[in-house]
Write a structure and sequence with these properties.
The chain is built from ten helices and eight strands. By secondary structure, the chain is an alpha/beta fold. The mean pLDDT is 95. Pfam families: Amidohydro_2.
Length: 286
Amino acid sequence: MIDTHHHFWKYSPDEYGWISDEMPQLQKDFLVPELNHHLDMSGVDQVISVQARCSDQENRFLLDCAKHSEELVAAIVGWAPLCSPDLRIFLDQYINEPLFKGIREIIQGCPDEQFLDNPDFDHGMREITHRDLAFDLLVFHDQLPSAIAFADKHPNQRMVLNHCGKPPVSNEGMKDPDSKSWARNIRELARRPHIYCKLSGLTTEIQDPESKSQSTRHHDLLRPYVDTIIHAFGPQRVMFGSDWPVSLLGTDYPAWLNLVDEFTLSLSPDEQAAIQHETAAAFYQI
């Protein structure tokens, strides 16, 4: 099994300013030993390490973690200055790094003109397409219409939507207007065959604090959102991810694994294998 989305970090308030005082469980180091502890008896054989800082330093850090992981880390998704005229020089540093498989930018919450509707960013995307690198698409649910337009500009670029597009998980499920809008946009985005989706990060998107804290409610709350993703993309374009350690804000590693097992129980063995590892291996060329 491949976990397609986790993070390593050596915590410091300056480096990880997005980790607020309301997230004390994240205010510590999360490195290879901590990950191995959570993976013990999990069935996860390999992981993909995803950037949590926008810097070249982050890429070097992730590659160093990978080299000390005894082949646990199958790939890293790093960062690159896609709007920079020096992008080619920057990416040339990683030509001989076989684990450097993709790029992610922190697009969530940013105005369209910064990334999704920016000619310089489009130019950068064409460069990573030319280099056959994957792209992790991180947006909030209200940015999905812009993400659809962005995907149409880059039909030859492999993209994977992070955390199911961060739906506003509501106690009302698909009766909630924002959830309805999310589902409609997900189905439209999934019509593009070059777009994939990570089944990850959903527990942290639960809107009601009381419901988020009651793990026994997570199955019923998340089921309509997971069903929407699997029906829209199909198992061949869905891949499992934990979003560890950020996921600790909503659940623990074994609980999320158990939830995904429950959500996919009705699928065929081939469809389950796709979500568990085959989709990820093909997408990231592992």
